[in-house]
Amino acid sequence: xxxxxxxxxxxxxxxxxxxxxxxxxxxxxxxxxxxxxxxxxxxxxxxxxxxxxxxxxxxxxxxxxxxxxxxxxxxxxxxxx
Length: 81
Known about the structure:
Blueprint: H1 3-15, E1 19-20, H2 21-28, H3 32-46, E2 51-56, E3 60-65, H4 68-80
Antiparallel strand pairs: 1-3, 2-3
C-alpha cells in the first residue's frame, strides 16, 4: 500500500462518514480514476483483515471493518499519524 492509499484508508476510518470518489479525488489532488484504482488496491490488501471499502451506489464509499483486532490496530495507527 502506498502513502496515498494509506492516507485514503485513514481518512475513511477517521471521518466515520461516507465519501464520494469525487470528494476523495479533490482532497488528495488526483483524478477520480486514480481514487477508484487506489480503492481497488486497498480492498485487495484489506481482504485478509475482514475489512473493505464498500460502495453504495456508483460513487459513495465507506469503510467496513468486521475484524475487531484490525479495528484496534487502525485506531492506534491513526493516533500516531
